[in-house]
């Protein structure tokens, strides 16, 4: 999971948990509020019951019952009951049932709240009060109670939740959308960080820069410091390679001079052997210098393959291998690759020399642009290379035969890879096609 998705999921879960707890809390608060309102209403009804008591010849009786019609309907969910010296009186709604009040002691005027079973498996909320009867009612004590079916309170709580949940759902969607927007804005610099690193790898920029938020800036600064250290190390490596090559060239030149003297004295075979060895060593030095140059390619490097190919063909026509061949060059002018001209000449020259050495009658140089890549191909009509051996030939010092140093194709592959491209070998009809896949140079502005 991406960082953005992880944070979004965590935020959504937190929102749902918070709103769920809010729903439970609001439901509990609403239930407590409804119960208080119900008890307040029952208190008024209890006062009406006590105020309606009068003395009759047969004893105390409730002559003015509460006005709520539910007291007169059997099992309607609202009940009253009085226990006194004269016995028990209850509302018509209790029918043949009675409120089983607990035997607790309540002081004069004291109030108790109970939850008791009622008729028809109802669960009742009961408000009980103990009173001392006045002289007109014969004195003594009485217990009066008013009860309500708790199902009405549950129905009110459920109706409240039914009204609340859609609103909480809309709020959850709004908060989740706001969280997504916050994440998009907050994490946008990380996307820019990835894009800038990709630009560094592509060579379209050379530094991360300092235009980053405070939290991201240390990462960009460390990357820039790493690039600076890498460039310095690469420059030192190039300098060491150049010093090594310079140190080797003078002894190699001396060896070739010694070979000339041996040849003049008649030791021709020994002179040829020294000459061949010195040339191979010099070629290796030159190749290593080329590889050192490609290690530090710059973002503004560009070369025209058509111009480089024309110069290569002109040189190769003057060699024994190239003089016997028919050369064709169909590379469109104006195509530019992101390589220094010397590096392109080194890579293209390596595969072109290889083609000239093995071709029977001709070599063709062509190019095909595809998006941001240029496919630069050299095709010969020679015997080709078995597919099983091609990968090995691109490794350092591999050879198709016993001639040469074995560095040509591997150096061309190294130069292509250093520029972000590759070298591929494929069959031609007949012969072999070696293709340099190179990044195209950016169009220069202005």
TrEMBL record:
<dbReference type="Pfam" id="PF02518">
    <property type="entry name" value="HATPase_c"/>
</dbReference>
<dbReference type="InterPro" id="IPR005467">
    <property type="entry name" value="His_kinase_dom"/>
</dbReference>
<keyword id="KW-0597">Phosphoprotein</keyword>
<feature type="domain" description="Histidine kinase">
    <location>
        <begin position="243"/>
        <end position="442"/>
    </location>
</feature>
<dbReference type="InterPro" id="IPR004358">
    <property type="entry name" value="Sig_transdc_His_kin-like_C"/>
</dbReference>
<protein>
    <recommendedName>
        <fullName>histidine kinase</fullName>
        <ecNumber>2.7.13.3</ecNumber>
    </recommendedName>
</protein>
<keyword id="KW-0418">Kinase</keyword>
<keyword id="KW-1133">Transmembrane helix</keyword>
<dbReference type="GO" id="GO:0000155">
    <property type="term" value="F:phosphorelay sensor kinase activity"/>
</dbReference>
<dbReference type="InterPro" id="IPR036890">
    <property type="entry name" value="HATPase_C_sf"/>
</dbReference>
<keyword id="KW-0472">Membrane</keyword>
<dbReference type="InterPro" id="IPR036097">
    <property type="entry name" value="HisK_dim/P_sf"/>
</dbReference>
<dbReference type="InterPro" id="IPR050428">
    <property type="entry name" value="TCS_sensor_his_kinase"/>
</dbReference>
<keyword id="KW-0812">Transmembrane</keyword>
<dbReference type="InterPro" id="IPR003594">
    <property type="entry name" value="HATPase_dom"/>
</dbReference>
<dbReference type="GO" id="GO:0005886">
    <property type="term" value="C:plasma membrane"/>
</dbReference>
<keyword id="KW-0808">Transferase</keyword>
């Amino acid at each position: 999971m991406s960082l953005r998705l992880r944070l979004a999921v965590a935020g959504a879960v937190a929102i749902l948990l918070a709103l769920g707890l809010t729903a439970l809390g609001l439901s509990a608060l609403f239930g407590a509020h409804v119960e208080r309102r119900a008890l307040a209403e029952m208190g008024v009804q209890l006062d009406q019951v006590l105020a309606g008591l009068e003395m009759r010849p047969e004893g105390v009786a409730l002559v003015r019952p509460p006005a709520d019609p539910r007291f007169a309907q059997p099992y309607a969910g609202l009940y009253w009951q009085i226990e006194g010296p004269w016995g028990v009186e209850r509302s018509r709604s209790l029918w043949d049932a009675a409120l089983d009040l607990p035997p607790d002691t309540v002081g004069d005027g004291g109030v108790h709240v109970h939850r008791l079973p009622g008729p028809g498996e109802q669960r009742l909320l009961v408000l009980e009060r103990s009173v001392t009867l006045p002289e007109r009612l014969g004195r003594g004590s009485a217990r009066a109670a008013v009860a309500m079916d708790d199902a009405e309170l549950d129905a009110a709580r459920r109706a409240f939740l039914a009204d609340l949940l859609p609103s909480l759902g809309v709020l959850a969607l709004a908060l989740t959308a706001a969280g997504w927007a916050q994440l998009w804005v907050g994490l946008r610099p990380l996307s820019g960080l990835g894009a800038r690193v990709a630009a560094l790898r592509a060579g379209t920029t050379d530094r991360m820069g300092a235009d980053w938020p405070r939290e991201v800036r240390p990462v960009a600064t460390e990357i820039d410091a790493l690039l600076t250290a890498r460039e310095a190390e690469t420059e030192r490596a190039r300098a060491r390679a150049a010093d090594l090559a310079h140190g080797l060239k003078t002894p190699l030149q001396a060896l070739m001079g010694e070979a000339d003297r041996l040849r003049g004295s008649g030791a021709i075979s020994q002179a040829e052997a020294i000459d061949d060895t010195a040339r191979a060593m010099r070629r290796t030095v030159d190749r290593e210098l080329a590889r050192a140059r490609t290690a530090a390619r710059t973002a503004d490097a560009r070369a025209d393959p058509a111009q480089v190919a024309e110069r290569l063909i002109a040189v190769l026509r003057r060699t024994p291998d190239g003089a016997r061949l028919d050369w064709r060059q169909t590379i469109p002018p104006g195509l530019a690759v992101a390589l220094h001209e010397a590096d392109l000449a080194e890579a293209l020259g390596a595969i072109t020399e290889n083609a000239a050495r093995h071709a029977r009658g001709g070599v063709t140089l062509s190019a095909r642009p595809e998006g941001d890549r240029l496919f630069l191909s050299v095709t010969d009509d020679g015997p080709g290379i078995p597919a099983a051996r091609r990968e090995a030939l691109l490794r350092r010092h591999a050879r198709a035969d016993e001639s040469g140093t074995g560095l040509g194709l591997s150096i061309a592959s190294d130069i292509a890879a250093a520029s972000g491209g590759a070298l591929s070998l494929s069959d031609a009809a007949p012969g072999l096609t070696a293709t340099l896949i190179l990044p195209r140079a950016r169009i220069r502005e202005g």
